[in-house]
Amino acid sequence: MRIQDDINVAKKYKNDTIQMRADVHELLSSPRIFQNNRCALCNSTLDLPAVHFLCMHSFHSQCCGETDKECMRCSTSNNTVKDIRKSLTATSCNHDKFFQALEGSEDGFAVMVEHLGRSALDSMNAE
């Protein structure tokens, strides 16, 4: 049962990755049409000048602020993902901790998979 659950999760991650790559390709190669008519912050009618983000949120320039380089709606979840990724890549280089975890674990395979996943993140950062 656990193996099937892991297989299902792996398939989901693979499909999510394929979809994300397609989204990135579309963002890099196709124009985006912004048809938002409401500010994502104050919900008032969107007037010019307006700020549009690729996540498809739009703001009045007054609502967004001149220094904001990220969407205010998406920045919290983006920062969470960035922090998790940073943590995983930082711990992937600690070989002593890896061997301690491997020796102290009842499930050495899970420790290996986790370590390999972190190493994969490191190689993605190098690209």
Question: Could you spell the SSE succession in H and E letters?
Answer: HEEHHHH
Task: Please state the structural category.
Answer: mainly alpha
- Morphology: elongated
The overall pLDDT average reads: 79
Strand order of the largest sheet: 1-2
Report the portion of residues in β strands. Answer: under 5%
Biggest sheet layout: 2 strands, antiparallel
Q: What is the number of strand segments?
A: 2
Helix content: 55-70%
How far is it from the N-terminal to the C-terminal residue, by CA?
36 Å
Describe the protein's architecture and organization.
The chain has 127 residues and is mainly alpha-helical. It has a domain at 74-127. Helices cover 62% and strands 5% of the residues. It has 5 helices and 2 strands. It has helices spanning 2-29, 61-64, 75-92, 95-104, 108-126; strands at 50-52, 58-60. It has a two-stranded antiparallel sheet with strand order 1-2. Strand 1 (50-52) and strand 2 (58-60) form a beta hairpin. The radius of gyration is 20 Å and the shape is elongated.
